[in-house]
Task: structure prediction
Amino acid sequence: MSFDGDEKRWICSRGTTMNLNLVSSIVKEISRDPCLNPSPNKGSKKLKPDKWQSLFDDDGRVHGFGKALKSILLGGVDPSIRPEVWEFLLSCYSSNSTSEYREQLRTARRERYEDLVRECQAMHSTVGTGALAFVIGSRVMDARTLPRDNNATDKKETTHNQFNSDNRDEKEGHPHVDNIHANSYLNHRESSSDSVTRDLSNNARSSDVCNCFQGKNEMEVEESYFSNENLFDFQSIPFTNLFEKITPDEKKCNLHSHRSSLDYRYNESLNTFQNNNDIDLQENWNYRSEDDIPRKVSDVQDEEEATTSNTYISGDSVSQWLWTLHKIVVDVVRTDNDLSFYGDSKNMARMSDILAVYAWIDPATGYCQGMSDLLSPFVVLYEDNADAFWCFEMLLRRLRENFHMEGPTGVMKKLQTLWKILEHTDSELYDHLSVIGAENLHFAFRMLMLLFRRELSFDDTLCMWEMMWATDFDEVLARGYEENCLEALILELPKDSNIETNANSIINSKMDIKDSPTDNGNSDFITCDKDEVKSDSKYPFCGLTKANFWTKQQQMQICSLSVSTRSIDDEISVFCVAAILITNRQKIMRETTSIDDVIKMFNDNLLKIRVKKCIQMAVKIRKKYLYKMKSINAGNSEQGESAV
Amino acid sequence: MAKKMDNEYDYLFKIVLIGDSGVGKSNILSRFTRNDFCLESKSTIGVEFATRTLQVNDRTIKAQIWDTAGQERYRAITSAYYRGAVGALLVYDITKKQTFDNVQRWLGELRGHADSNIVIMMAGNKCDLKQLRAVSEEEGQELAEKEGLSFLETSALEAINVEKAFGTILGEIYHIVSKKALAAQETAAAAGPPSQGTTINVSDSTGTKKSCCSN
Result:
């Protein structure tokens, strides 16, 4: 059998490799800044600056946030006030915080973010510098962009000449600087046997980096981390001590053990890290494992000590983070690269930094493919990385379960809910999907995972998001997210007049919520809970502060109530997917005869999605569904009673 | 129109692309089905597939190639797609040893979820990156022999061996299917009146007469 017969007809539609410079310059010309300029044409119904400003009192508290929410539900937020409004929508700030307090909190958050960046910078020098961690790990790192030496390119298949010559043309179009980087990398590879030693001697910087590490083993490990910087000639930046937060006594007794545990675990790590997206770090790892195994583990006891202690930064977590950083960069360069904004590599680096910091403070979640899609809008919207980071983090508090590895993930649960929703709201479509074997609804996976990022344009996504958040806005639920605050992000603001402010804010916010157009029946809970909450408010609410501002008992109560009143089940995103399915029901029922057809239809974005309509319909469907569920449950309990 | 084309085939073979993330699965897919390569293709979230229709002998074979996310935590959704697969292309990246080491894990995955008769080919992708090679061709060959897999080194970028890899898998599947068909015919012939039968000559090879991109 031959498959080579008609190669020539397969002329590549876009060229075998894209000329990146050319493409990005075209995109730059035709694209406008997607989300910061107000769009004059379709400005009829949305939250506009004048209305928004009119809601603030002299202290900067928002009065009647519900009114703002209503406006947002009509058509989103005017792009000029989007960054500010989003912070409230995501519960970064309570609507009743004063502007002074918010400023204080913002400052504290920025400082904390800077601290975290410095921690990460100590592990990899590029973080926080505006340079991508592994420049040549991305599109430009791909060594296929190199001028090739002739001996290495004897082609196996002559039928591919057409493509090969195309490739060569493309390659020549690439920036020279990348070639230089890649070349130095190649040189390194050729003499890899002595590279550690060479790096060690050249790299005084590295040994300064973690001067707390003593002993031969540690230095070797260190070098394998930092040799990258040498190779690629990254600008020299001052390192901070990774462990500077640890008291000197702790350092003495723990650091050595961390490092030896790290050394020992290289082996293990090689088996642990399943996903590799890059070359250079991988190379280091490989070669360490080949050259240094079997390695003598000097003190197993030390290692055990290190692993049992959670308070110290273990070498294992450092190595895991470095690995993650790799994966991040590979995805960052291919995220929203049609936006002119990301034509600037500094902006890509911002994205990479934020993801890297997040992965560092939340190693259980780390980095998962798709997170870059979720972060990207924040990087575009916020000039300050810290602000973008906090918003992203607040978003992830809602979505974190999607990225968990163990058990059914958030998305899988949502798909189950979606199936139930269809059953109770569109039985015809439900039947059709059952018949064609599409019960698992996997075609909706990406929508729920990336919140419609791949289905909608960038602008439409922003609108969709803010409308979804406005629909689901609930400060009570936000307190549940408060409980989820990652340890590294807990801030304590000085106790000052703001405490009073925030005690008030909780009360006021409740009043607000009653006004707000949420459809999920939470208001019952809000009123009954009111008295208990206000009495114990010692710390600012929604300030990512110490989580103990409710008593344990109240926390339990709030948690259970939150779960019962609103759970992952009735998050608006699931109903949005239901709305999309139902809106397109005719097309789906007419054109699909198997789940494959549905998957194709979704992946190729063949469905009509109109943001406003979708949200409006989702709200209706949710109402209908919750009503049905309520009556079903009531019926069940009656039956149960009569059976007894 | 696409629909009409879709229905014109004698066999539909489902093939899954598996392997760690970043090894080039999506580009292998686009090379085979659209003859396209994009260095910056977005990460695959969930599952995707594309089809290409080929002519083998006088038979039209529709190859439906499933592309799945390589990141481990997406397994919950990807594992569902082994069902019905008759072929698998297990891809690693010759410049990343780890992706080669993980081949065993993926084989385990296949054994756990896929049909036991699934035709598996292992592909060491990115073979154009000779200078960065971390896994030798011999190593790949050795593992393939040990595991009883077919093996090729491929480059989606330079369109090296991608056709051949899928061709081998499809050919092997076709061989099995037609052998089964023949066996069934023989049984039928022995048992009762002869049915109309086309003799399928598997060893003959013809060029691809028809190519189809489902997009």
Summary: Confidence is low (pLDDT under 50) at residues 194-215 of chain B. The longest strand of chain B covers residues 47-56. Residues 162-191 of chain B form the longest helix (30 residues).
